[in-house]
Amino acid sequence: MTRIPIKRFAAYLSFSSVLIACSPVSTVGAPELGVDEGCADVVAADVETSFDGTHTFTVTVVSDDQGWDKYADAWIVRVGDTEIGRRELTHPHDTEQPFTRSLSGVVIPDGATSVTITANDSVLGECGKAFELSLVSP
């Protein structure tokens, strides 16, 4: 294992971070559903490149959590129809809305120009607003 001095490592991470253009996209599943109807919506997302070439996604979700009976239990990163990352959410977030969580170690396939991120509700599934991140620098 190569040791990198902390100052150099921090500079390398700053240099390798990627600024990504992003925008919300249409709903997945049923059209025009969202938090008002009980679905979980992805409202913000960011991605950074790590020194090892993998990526860390930071995603913000708004959901109609109602305790253990109904809550956002995951968010999913896809390139096209292929799932490349899934962040399991292990408990409800009734009192923390919106909430943000990260997922590290995601490998984005070569040639991918964007990813779509959706949230999953434990009862309703993937029915909320998805979020698209462009992987192409503006």
Model description:
With 138 residues, this protein is mainly beta. It has one domain (18-134): Immunoglobulin-like (Sandwich). It contains one helix and eight strands; from the N terminus they run H-E-E-E-E-E-E-E-E. The strands form two sheets. It has a five-stranded antiparallel β-sheet with strand order 1-8-7-4-5, with no helix packed on it. A three-stranded antiparallel β-sheet has the order 2-3-6, with no helix packed on it. The protein is elongated, with a radius of gyration of 16 Å. It starts with 5 loop residues before the first helix and ends with a strand.
Per-chain topology:
Elements: H1 6-16, E1 22-27, E2 41-49, E3 55-62, E4 72-79, E5 82-88, E6 99-106, E7 114-121, E8 129-134
- In percent terms, what proportion of residues is strand? 35-45%
H/E element sequence: HEEEEEEEE
Note the gap between the termini. Answer: 35 Å
**Number of helices, where a helix is a run of at least 4 consecutive DSSP H or I residues:** 1
Task: Give a quick set of tags describing it.
138 residues, Immunoglobulin-like, 1 helix, 8 strands, elongated, mainly beta, disordered N terminus
Summarize the structure.
This protein is mostly beta strands and 138 residues long. Helices cover 8% and strands 43% of the residues.
